[in-house]
Amino acid sequence: MRRGVPTIAVAGALLVVSATGGATAALVITGKQIKDNSVTSKDIKNRTLKTKDLAASTVAALKGNTGPAGPAGPQGATGPAGATGGFTGVERVSVDRDITASGDYYGSAFVTVPCPAGKIAVSGGYYLASSAVDIAVHTNRPNATGTAWEVYVRSTTSNFSAAFYALCANSG
């Protein structure tokens, strides 16, 4: 009978050590203590790694090729009707001008092309004769009220002829 008591005591002690041994080891061993490249895929439980656990280059390498396009979806509902109108009553208005060099401003002109009453300037511009050289256009825009087109041109070397125009449309 004496022989059975130490065997039971040893078996009990081994049971306690084996039951707490894994938990104790997990609390004691840190990542710094694990030798590099010693943990392999068989040591990692499946589906426990997340993309945040991987290097960015590894995550990028996981992306495959784009697959084929899926089938077209059903036709959507018809949207509401848009506003009617657009530009109506469009007309081109032009002003011809001969620009003569004078004083410190050389050949320069600020030209306003007015639209007819009830119309707004929706576009505009200019045409410079082939004799015009060294021309700078400083302004090419609608005026502040939108009822005319403004162009300011300047030549540092020569007199020239130009045509300035506005495209005017009904404002309502």
Automatic annotation (TrEMBL):
Keyword Signal: yes
Signal peptide as annotated in the record: 1-25
Gene3D superfamilies reported in the protein's UniProt record: 6-Phosphogluconate Dehydrogenase, domain 3
Key words, A-Z: Signal
Highest taxon, organism lineage: Bacteria
Name of protein: Collagen triple helix repeat-containing protein
Organism encoding this protein: Nocardioides flavus
